[in-house]
Amino acid sequence: MKQRRLPVEINLALGFLAMILIGAVLLFLPVSHQEGQSMSFIDSLFLSTSGVCVTGLTPVDISKTLSVFGSTVLMVLFQVGGLGYAVIAAILLGLIHRSGSLTERHMLFDTFGADNGIKFNTLLRFILASTFIIELLGTLVLFIPFSQDYETGRALYIALFTSLAAFNNAGFDLFSTSLLGYNDNLLVLVTVALLIIVGGIGYVLMMELFIKVRKRGRLSLQSKIVLSTTAALLVGGTLLFYFLSPLDLKNSFFQAVTTRTAGFFSCDQASLNAPSLVLTIMLMFIGASPGSTGGGLKTTTFFVTMKSAFSLLRNKDATAFKRKIADETIKKAFNLFAVAFLLLAASLFILTVTDGDLGIVELVYEEVSAFATVGLTMGITSQLSLPGKIVIIMLMYFGRVGILTLMAIFSTRRPQASYIEAKVAIG
Predict the structure, then answer these.
(1) Is there a contact between 260 and 287 (Cβ–Cβ < 8 Å)?
(2) pTM of the entire structure?
(3) Most buried among 145, 262, 326, 422, by the most CB within 10 A?
(4) Residue closest to 13 by CA, chosen among 94, 111, 106, 121
(5) 55 within 8 A of 376, measured Cβ to Cβ
(6) What CA–CA distance (Å, rounded) separates 241 from 281?
């Protein structure tokens, strides 16, 4: 009897779950804590999930709680969570391209943002090389301002930690107050922002840019959508923050960047006015791009959903850059949007029951930040109840890898009866 094989998406999700549990055990060990400090296992699990899912939310002040060993464990976790996801997905893509089913291929291609003609060995080498080079450059640049405030060894460690956290869109910091102390330092803000942007556009796009620019070729439709949507969100977000909030231009730009699943902050999020909070929540929900170190709904899903909605109102086909968007792509985009919305709605209901005293705005902010693996908070993470922390842990996990599992479950082929088509009044 032939043994049934689990879908690759479930294997990938289980792999991340294993990493989370290993990380939780390591972070729970006394050697991971500074002298006189400790963490409960639920907080260790929360922190490990946040690390592997490259979120940045933490129930404790890691700069005061974690030892060098503990912060190094955390750094490895969000490096594995960001880079590991891309590497594992690339390896799976290569294996499935040779031996997997057509359904498995399409599902991973959609998830990772690659097309059927990609050379996986080339992609894998590019992922490893580009990650090492970009993170090294970020470390060297950040060492310059940090060396003015810390001893050489400590400054180099903080620069490395910050560079890896920024490129992997993780948002962890060793300052207690993120980048509040550097909100006037243009070099720090610009360097971290560039690391976040590059890490958030996706490895496939980076490789395509590298190849196409060198050979003067044309970019794919997906790359054009990612670039145009990213640029629009960054420019539009910067201008809106600048005019709607008391932030200056450089911090408005940084706020527009960090909401794209990064989690660093150069201003107190709890002090933002209502329009700025709503804008932040919207940008967090949209998130980064497919095949990147970031999370969220993804720029391509947002673009296709909005483009299709407006095209439907005009009774026209959804097009982009003189290309018609496939009906299957539109269907998947709306499905993902609906699943994300329903998951957040259900989670918010539970949170209002378990932690309603923390405030509805704060809870919405926290749950969207968790689901989109952003890491920004209005300061309520440490105040969450045990059930509330479990909800946030699940949101971080599903926001990073859970959609893959849902797609695998619902895409299982089963014999279906054919029914007579009927119309239902809408609106």
Answers:
(1) yes
(2) 0.88
(3) 262
(4) 111
(5) no
(6) 13
